[in-house]
Amino acid sequence: MANLTTYTYEDIPIDNNTIKYFLSANSNKLSYAEFIKVLSLGKENFLDTFEKALNEATNKLSAYFWECPPVHKAMKNKPFEFVVTKSTALNYNKQDYSSFKEKITNNFTKNAPKEQQIKFWQEVAIKLAECLEI
């Protein structure tokens, strides 16, 4: 029987409007290189954990900006992290779906078949790995 990696996330409140997240595999924080690799492998249990973290952010902050430190070669062995910062302004902005109809949308990540979502994230990881030469 193969060992199943357990993926988890840690959320650390920075203040009332900002939360920092780390992702872990078997209780070890993922580096940027490891994050990209596991994303490229399309592991469903990892993607489920990543989506849970993002959904938790939505539940806590409603609308937010998502960001991570600039990614470059020197970052590949550092722990992967991202922060979400509440945006009350985004709560009142009308979404302009027409600007993104040729692109990926929130509807895709919520409603597309899991296989398509996995392929999407794999492609993101592959392109990121190419850019970082890892």
Task: Explain how this protein is built.
- Helix content is 43%, strand content 22%.
- By secondary structure, it is of the alpha+beta class.
- The chain has one domain (7-92, 105-132).
- Strands 1, 2, 3, 4 and 5 form a five-stranded antiparallel β-sheet that branches.
- The two termini are 30 Å apart.
Structural features:
134 residues, five-stranded antiparallel β-sheet, 43% helix, alpha+beta, single chain
Report a brief summary of the structure:
By secondary structure, the protein is an alpha+beta fold. Helix content is 43%, strand content 22%.
Round the Cα radius of gyration to an integer and report it.
16 Å
Determine the N-to-C terminus distance. 30 Å
- Structural domain count: 1
Low-confidence parts: none
**Helical segment count:** 5
Q: Globular, elongated, flat, extended or rod-shaped: what is the shape?
A: globular
The major sheet is characterized as: 5 strands, antiparallel
Nearest-integer average pLDDT: 85
Overall SS class: alpha+beta
User: What is the element string, with H for helices and E for strands?
Assistant: EEEHHEEHHH
Amount of beta strand? 15-25%
Protein name: 28558_t:CDS:1
Task: Outline the secondary-structure elements.
Blueprint: E1 7-15, E2 18-25, E3 28-29, H1 32-41, H2 44-61, E4 64-67, E5 81-86, H3 88-92, H4 106-111, H5 114-132
Antiparallel strand pairs: 1-2, 2-3, 2-5, 4-5
